[in-house]
Design brief:
There is one protein chain. By secondary structure, this protein is of the alpha/beta class. It has eleven helices and 14 strands. It starts with a strand and ends in an 11-residue tail after the last helix. The longest helix has 21 residues, at 94-114. Helix 1 packs across helix 8 (236-252). The strands form four sheets. Strands 3-2-1-4-5-6-11 form a seven-stranded parallel beta sheet, with helices on both faces. A three-stranded mixed beta sheet has the order 12-9-14. Bound molecules: nicotinamide-adenine-dinucleotide and uridine-5'-diphosphate-4-deoxy-4-fluoro-alpha-D-galactose (UFG). Uridine-5'-diphosphate-4-deoxy-4-fluoro-alpha-D-galactose is lined by residues 85, 87, 125-127, 177-179, 198-200, 203, 216-218, 229, 231, 269, 292, 295. Uridine-5'-diphosphate-4-deoxy-4-fluoro-alpha-D-galactose (UFG) is lined by residues 85, 87, 125-127, 177-179, 198-200, 203, 216-218, 229, 231, 269, 292, 295.
Length: 342
């Protein structure tokens, strides 16, 4: 297959690029480098010995998307990763989130249609389950969101579902990711957040490296195993493999499928911290702070559908995730730029 990856220079996109190249497929990434570095795909090329082509351009700009299809196509399928993803930021600048995350999809689908490329895998999120407390979360539960970022995912799911209903040859797989962490085992590609990380694992890694002093645990009074929030952490390489399986499914089937990508297991913040300490022999100092607004107590996937439909399941453990995340952090203390002031 020849696959276009929008947002392909980002965290999940670069790991998926590597996975697809290793499986013998060809990839082209379209990324405006708003939250990523060209270095990621350079390293993917080095690791695989294959060409991970990067086209710098914006998915909300029709001419940019058109140019990729004309100059680098034809494509058998597209994985649409491109978008803004910070929940807190989306509350501060909602219009920018709606503009980028919705316009990119509309522009992309119109260009895909024009070029007869009708197979799409979309990066959705477990955030669309909103405040649902019925764990494990399965795909048929009602959805709803608590922040503009979440609504952009929810609206994109609706847009793509409507498109697939209207045009019988369209194939869409909506992947609801749980909490992707870790890095490729080489330590050459990984998550490179700018500024102080919002998410738990990159924060823990920066405490381990001494860049940050201590972890702030957001609440220990939830109704969970130890009072701290429970999430379904999934190794980014397992997640990447889920995209390979979703693409194989998309080119063989028409219509729309919503599929969770999670392990089905929940771990608390403190369980993750202890797993990290054990896997890497590093102590993580922490303090307990009040709950973070908008957080829910427990979130983990029912992963059965992914197993049945996509023939996929996660294989890596929490220990693997902690080891690989730290391996990436210690080899690249300042991310791809190697620049302390980033
Ligand atoms: P990321 O920020 O590392 O990757 C997104 C990429 O999209 C970046 O390289 C960015 O430069 C690019 N981009 C943004 N807007 C663009 C535009 N208009 N045109 C071209 N490129 C654009 O994020 P990620 O963690 O790799 O996430 C990938 C996708 O998965 C996103 O859609 C995100 O919302 C979704 N997702 C992520 C998580 C997570 O925890 N990482 C969880 C659920 C869903
Ligand atoms: N947490 C801390 N301290 C931190 C950061 C996080 O205690 O410094 C806790 C949170 O309270 C939560 C858990 O660690 O209990 C995980 O938090 P993350 O921020 O890592 O992840 P979330 O589950 O809040 O959200 C992530 C992505 C969302 C996505 C969601 C579901 O950031 O974009 O997973 O896929 F929607």
């Amino acid at each position: 297959m020849r696959v276009l990856l929008t947002g392909g220079a980002g965290f999940i996109g670069s790991h998926t690029a590597l996975c697809l190249l290793e499986a013998g497929h060809e990839i082209v990434a379209l990324d405006n480098l708003n939250n990523s570095s060209p270095e990621a795909l350079k390293r993917v090329s080095e690791l695989t010995g294959k060409q991970a082509t990067l086209v710098v351009g914006d998915c909300t700009v029709e001419a940019d998307v058109e140019k990729v299809f004309t100059e680098y196509g034809p494509f058998d399928a597209v994985v649409h990763f491109a978008g803004h993803k910070a929940v807190g930021e989306s509350v501060s600048i909602p219009l920018e989130y709606y503009r980028n995350n919705l316009n990119s999809t509309l522009v992309l689908c119109n260009v895909m249609k024009k070029h007869g490329c009708l197979n799409l895998v979309f990066s959705s999120s477990a955030t669309v389950y909103g405040t649902n407390t019925q764990v494990p979360l399965h795909e048929d539960l009602p959805t709803g969101c608590t922040n503009p970022y979440g609504w952009t995912k929810w609206m994109n799911e609706q847009i793509l579902t409507d498109w697939s209903h209207a045009e019988k040859d369209v194939s869409v797989v909506l992947l609801r990711y749980f909490n992707p962490i870790g890095a490729h085992q080489s330590g050459r590609i990984g998550e490179d957040p700018s500024g102080i990380p919002n998410n738990l694992m990159p924060y823990v890694c920066q405490v381990a490296s001494g860049k940050l002093q201590k972890l702030h645990v957001f609440g220990n009074d939830y109704d969970t195993v130890d009072g701290t929030g429970v999430r379904d952490y999934i190794h980014v390489c397992d997640l990447a493999n889920g995209h390979l399986k979703a693409l194989e499914y998309a080119v063989e089937h028409k219509g729309v499928e919503v599929v969770n990508l999670g392990t089905g297991e929940g771990y608390s913040v403190m369980q993750l911290v202890h797993a990290f300490e054990e896997a890497n022999g590093i102590e993580i100092p922490y303090v307990v702070d009040p709950r973070r607004p908008g957080d829910i107590a427990i979130c983990y996937a029912d992963p059965k559908k992914a197993n049945e439909k996509l023939k996929w399941q996660a294989t890596r453990t929490l220990t693997d995730m902690c080891r690989d995340a730290w391996n990436w952090q210690k080899q690249n203390p300042f991310g791809y730029h190697g620049d302390e002031n980033k």
